[in-house]
């Protein structure tokens, strides 16, 4: 579903991604871990066109996006959903409008079916009663669940998550993780940057350890957590587990 080859990114003279190769198969859940500043956010932001790479290519579902084709990079955003740490809901729009704005504009949701679809999606996250609420009237965990189903409303081929629970109160973290686990069980292709090692252990098909702009290690969770191959991986996991 996602194939990354030789992906590079520099900010000014500073290389941040140094030749990333990565494959994510349809229905797979990939968890990305690594120290702060290792390039995790930059990597997943390039996957949906928010960051333009300096070199390399990404193919989504067989469609190749070369590094220098800006239009093609922007189209990535329509096929690959993204969920951010800070939810990024539009504060002046209701839950309903937050969910319908982009898909209606992009022709992925027709007016006539919008209401039923929004309700169906909100029911998945037990928030149908909040359809006319504004983001400020919701808890952080509720906002994040809306952000997840808002991404689903675009019918994405894959969903990316950048530390989706890092800003949440501890008691709402599990609600959001439960939604993500449910999506994984339904076969959604997901790339998740997180420090929730319990989630990685239970839900990930593979865990990738990033360090200083490279993928140091890529393994199933049982291997990554019980028998990491590199000293850097061991040192990192020693601190977070
Ligand atoms: P992580 O998500 O693993 O913490 P990031 O991808 O956010 O890492 O950042 C990797 C490196 O790139 C850091 O050194 C960061 O300061 C730098 N960086 C990220 N975004 C930008 C930007 N827009 N401009 C300049 N430097 C950036
Ligand atoms: Mg980050």
Automatic annotation (TrEMBL):
Protein family according to the UniProt entry: Belongs to the ABC transporter superfamily.
Q: Would you tell me the protein name for this molecule?
A: Amino acid ABC transporter ATP-binding protein
Q: What are the record keywords, sorted?
A: ATP-binding, Cell membrane, Membrane, Nucleotide-binding, Transport
Q: Where is the signal peptide?
A: none
Task: Reply yes or no: does the keyword Glycoprotein apply.
Answer: no
User: Could you confirm whether the keyword Nucleotide-binding appears in this record?
Assistant: yes
Q: Pinpoint the ABC transporter domain residues.
A: 2-237
Gene Ontology molecular function: any one = ABC-type amino acid transporter activity
Give the matching InterPro entries: AAA+_ATPase, ABC_ATPase_HisP-typ, ABC_transporter-like_ATP-bd, ABC_transporter-like_CS, MetN_ABC_transporter-like, P-loop_NTPase
